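agent> fetching stored inputs for the zinc ion docking request
agent> found them:
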Amino acid sequence: MDYSKSLENKLKEIRNKDARKVKILAIETSCDETAAAVVRGGRKVLSSIVNSQIAIHSKYGGVVPEVASRQHGLVLSKVVDAALCEAGEEFDSIDAVAVTCGPGLVGALLVGVSYAKGIALAKSLPLLGVNHIEGHICSNYITHPRLKPPFLCLIVSGGHSHIVLVEGYDELKVLGRTRDDAAGEAFDKIGRLLGVPYPGGPNLEKLASRGDPDAYPFPRGMKNEQGYDLTFSGLKTAVINMLHKAREKGQKVNAADVAASFQAAVVETLVEKTFLALCKSGMDKLAVCGGVSANGALRDAVRRRAAETGAKVYFPAPEYCGDNAAMIGCAGHLMLLRGAVSGLDLDANPSLGLN
Ligand code: KG4
Ligand code: ZN
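agent> prediction call returned; pasting tokens
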């Protein structure tokens, strides 16, 4: 039987099934984590395996795209086998395959997309091409299974900083976005300047815990501008200039103070814009997600402001802040429910946007 005929039969079978029992194999290879998961009913994670490439890229001080793709190719099938095994499932007991198709590194994305297409074709399964940023939004559905739209979402990762109004599961309105660096990218770049190991975010946070956040009055991006867009380039330049001047004058700088002051500026910028959007949109729920949502200073500041405003806040569990495939499975399940099945001509789109 050809793929389209058997896919039709499979989709009929899925429609007749209790949605809570539908099992998705999800794959994520957009950057430097090779991840696979099995998710049941969209929100129950049966397994989630993340094979990080941090140790490989750290010697270069950042992700080397070609090395990342090669590594995904080397480990993906083992990671998928481990996810199926841990969930007690096999390819024949899975209902659909979800895969990140963008945004991300094109070579890295292609490894996951090609692999997922192969499984879909061989096992006559629906293929679901998931937007990585939508995946991050879903990380909060996994951690908080009762969370439902509408809510405001702050997405802060290595590649993206977005303030999004989630009006429905597939109704996303981008209110603001970064005009230059993403929040995580800024952490990584300043981390490198301060000599902390890659990835800069978590290591800079550690360094900052020993510093004074008021030591340097770094600028808060877009503070006096209307709208919800974000920028971190002025802040980055201010840190670089300060370090440069100190070096010229032979002055010693306390790296922990610089880290703490930089982190305080990023956190204040994110919190100000997010709560402005929350207040103006009339939302009473705020979800934060993406790699930077693991940051303790950001979590504390968001919780403090939320307590003042009466908003309810949601953060993903630590294992779902950074890249993982469970969030891709959750997003794929929502796509399957609304019939948004991808064709076998699905392509990787490195600059896929939210809308
Ligand atoms: O979501 P993610 O894993 O990948 C992307 O989609 O980009 O985010 C990775 C980013 C990196 O820039 C990393 O430095 C940052 O999240 N990050 C953090 C922390 N943990 C990870 N930034 C600040 N504080 C952290 N604790
Ligand atoms: Zn991500």
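agent> quick read of the result: The domain at 146-318 is CATH 3.30.420.40 (Nucleotidyltransferase; domain 5).
agent> awaiting further instructions
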